[in-house]
Design a protein that fits this description.
206 residues; alpha/beta; Rossmann fold; Arc Repressor Mutant, subunit A; 5-stranded parallel sheet; 9 helices; elongated
C-alpha cells in the first residue's frame, strides 16, 4: 500500500462507490471499493497499518453499525467514517457513540469529506506509529531480568533507591546496578525517560 494510506469505500450502491472512488482517486488517494460489509471483512488485511474506512450506514446483509461492532471485536485500528441518508442520521449518531470518527449525510459534500478522510489517515498513521513504539518497548521490557523489572516497577511508583532497597531486601548499590541495567536495556536516557516508556507500555503506577 502507499505511504499515504488506503481508503476503503464500503457501500452496496455501485454509483456511490464509483463516484467516491473517482473523486478520491483523482486526488491521488489510494482507494479500494467493497460492495458489502461482508465483502470488506473478507478482504481486510489485518497487517495494514495506515488507512481508514468509509462505510454506508444502511446496507443489506450487514449494516454499517454491525460492521463497526465487528471491527471493534477484531481490534481493527482503522478509523471509520459513516455515510448516511437523511432518515438514518440517528443511526449515524449512534455509530459515532460506538466509536465512528464522523458521519456525512448524502449527498456528500466532497471537500468536507476529503478533509475529514485526510484527518482519518493521519490519525491512523499516528496510531500505527504508537503501536510500533509499544511493540518495541514490549520487546525491550521482555529482556529485563525479574529483579530489574521489580526495580523498574518501583521506580515507576516513585520510590528512591533506599526505599527500593528496603522493600526488596537488597543494598542501595545493588538497586542502582539493576536500575542502570534496566535503563540501558530500555534505551532510556534518564529516569524520567524510563518511566515514560514503561507507562506508555501500560505498566502504570503499580
Amino acid at each position: 500500500m502507499s505511504e499515504t494510506g488506503l481508503i476503503h469505500i464500503v457501500d452496496d450502491d455501485r454509483a456511490v462507490r464509483d463516484g467516491l472512488g473517482f473523486l478520491l482517486g483523482s486526488l491521488g488517494l489510494e482507494i479500494e471499493t467493497h460492495a458489502s460489509a461482508l465483502a470488506f471483512l473478507d478482504a481486510l488485511d489485518t497487517a495494514e497499518t495506515v488507512g481508514c474506512i468509509l462505510a454506508d450506514v444502511r446496507m443489506p446483509g450487514m449494516s454499517g453499525l454491525e460492521l463497526l461492532d465487528e471491527l471493534q471485536k477484531r481490534d481493527c485500528p482503522l478509523p471509520v467514517i459513516m455515510i448516511t441518508g437523511h432518515g438514518d442520521v440517528p443511526m449515524a449518531v449512534k455509530a459515532m457513540r460506538a466509536g465512528a470518527l464522523d458521519f456525512f449525510e448524502k449527498p456528500v459534500q466532497g471537500m468536507a469529506l476529503i478533509d475529514r478522510l485526510k484527518e482519518a489517515l493521519e490519525l491512523s498513521r499516528t496510531r500505527a506509529e504508537a503501536a510500533g513504539d509499544r511493540a518495541k518497548i514490549a520487546t525491550k521490557i521482555d529482556s529485563l531480568t525479574a529483579r530489574e523489572a521489580e526495580v523498574a516497577r518501583a521506580v515507576v511508583r516513585g520510590l528512591q533507591n533506599k526505599q527500593i532497597a528496603a522493600e526488596l531486601g537488597i543494598s542501595p548499590k545493588t538497586v542502582e546496578i539493576h536500575r542502570h541495567n534496566a535503563m540501558s536495556k530500555l534505551a532510556a536516557t534518564s529516569t524520567a525517560d524510563m518511566v515514560r516508556r514503561l507507562v506508555a507500555a501500560g505498566w502504570g503506577e503499580t
